[in-house]
Design goal:
alpha/beta; 5 strands; about 45% helix; about 20% strand; five-stranded mixed sheet; Glutaredoxin
Length: about 130
């Protein structure tokens, strides 16, 4: 995570924590691409951290929903570290960082299908 945040200083960072076996995660995928497209050309980085379901299924899902952004299939150790560090109790889970690399919000309420998520990102862009 430190590496992701450090590489994206100056950008708003939106992280989607998901798994291929998670129906609510999959339902959000078309909205994820719409959100990405809305902010195309803006200093916003979209990162998708997959927490399981197999590499093949992970790659199929990315292709099926034409997901842009940075994709990473986490190891078991990375998953454990993330859940501990960010108190992730379930997925989908989202993390939102401002341009300075400070996490400003997190949780399932930051789903890409919810209009407040777009508003939250726009507000961070204006800062």
């Amino acid at each position: 995570m430190k590496h992701l945040v450090a590489e994206n200083l100056g950008n708003v960072l939106y992280i989607d924590v998901w798994a291929t076996w998670c129906p609510p995660c999959i339902i959000e995928k078309p909205y994820s691409e719409k959100l990405y497209n809305h902010f195309e050309g803006e200093p916003v980085t979209f990162v998708y951290l997959c927490m399981g379901g197999g590499h093949e299924k992970w790659q199929e899902t990315i292709k099926k929903y034409n997901l842009s952004g940075i994709h990473h299939y986490t190891t078991e150790k990375e998953w454990q570290d993330l859940t501990k560090r960010f108190s992730i109790k379930g997925i989908p889970h989202y993390l939102l960082f401002n341009k300075e690399g400070v996490m400003v919000d997190f949780g399932s309420h930051l789903r890409p299908s919810i209009s407040q998520t777009k508003t939250a990102i726009e507000e961070l862009l204006e800062q």
